[in-house]
Amino acid sequence: MRFLVLRLEGPLMSFSDAAVDELRRTRELPGLSMLTGLVANALGLRFTDGNRLRRLQERLVYGARLDRKGQLLRDFQTAQLNKNDLLWRSDGLGPERREGGEGSFSGPTLRERFYRADSRVCVVLSLVPEDESPTLDDLAAAFARPFRPLFLGRVCCPPSGPLHRGEVVDALDAYDALERAAPGEQSDPAPLTALWPADGPGARRPVDMAAGRIVELHDLRDWRNDVHSGSRYAVSGPVHPCGVSAKGEVQS
User: Any signal peptide, and if so, which residues (predicted)?
Assistant: First the structure.
């Protein structure tokens, strides 16, 4: 299989986890719906392209590796919202007034959002089937000249450089691709935490529990109805990328 290598790096990034009330946590590694949206932005798809987005999500095969853990950052937000306040809608159709009675907004809205600061993630990305449009070459061209600005999970998290720098690896599966893609300088010591498919194309099951564990991820999106829906299984475990020592040194 051919995999594009993406380097996700920036001052802040956020990979959404399950939301509980006004608590918005982040995972260390990106989910499938987040990467679908990232690719769709590069290609120029819109949120109204529900069928194309659904098909893109179905075709994406990826593995993710935490090259530098960074730090967890907590952002505590407050906002005083009244019924007459105009808020911008996510569909881009302009501002509108909030629904509900005046008494529904008697106090400030409190929210906690979490980010990863100074983190770096390597993603290996493929498409199955390979000959269907868009192809992997189409994705490479789109990342070279994205249709619109790209961000790492949230609009306030721009990347510090190009996400794809021409790196492509041929590998047996996503796990193999993660081991072949060399980290950059100042990476954490090996082994590095990673995530790869548990079944389907690009999958590799762990031989024993020391090599990884099966996890359930709630990272699928119903793009036609614009809601998160469904779960899948992946493997979370360690990888030993080529050229990285247990001290985090990049070897020639």
Answer: none
164 or 242: whose pLDDT is higher?
Answer: 164
Q: Quick check: is 106 in a domain?
A: no
pLDDT band at 173 (very low <50, low <70, confident <90, very high): very high
Give the chain's domain count: 1
Instruction: Classify residue 221: in a domain, yes or no.
Output: yes
Least confident segment among 108-112, 220-224, 233-237: 108-112
Contact criterion met (CB below 8 Å) for 244 and 182? yes
Short-list 158, 157, 165, CA closest to 122: 165
Q: Which residue has the tokens 């983190």?
A: 119
* pLDDT in the model for residue 211: 75
Helix axes 32-43, 50-59, angle to 10 degrees: 120
Nearby residues of 207 by Cβ (< 8 Å), 6 or more positions away = none
Burial class of 236 by CB neighbour count within 10 A (0 to 12, 13 to 18, 19+): middle
* Signed CA dihedral, 124, 158, 185, 26: sign only: negative
In the chain, alpha helices (H): 32-43, 50-59, 136-144, 174-180
Q: What is the CATH number of the domain that holds 215?
A: 3.30.70.2660
183 falls in which pLDDT band (50, 70, 90)?
A: confident
For 35, the 3-state DSSP assignment is helix
Q: Would you say residue 104 lies in a domain?
A: no
pLDDT for the residue numbered 252: 46
Give 229-251 pLDDT, tens digit per residue: 888 999 999 999 875 555 555 55
The parent domain of residue 37 ranges over 2-74+115-239
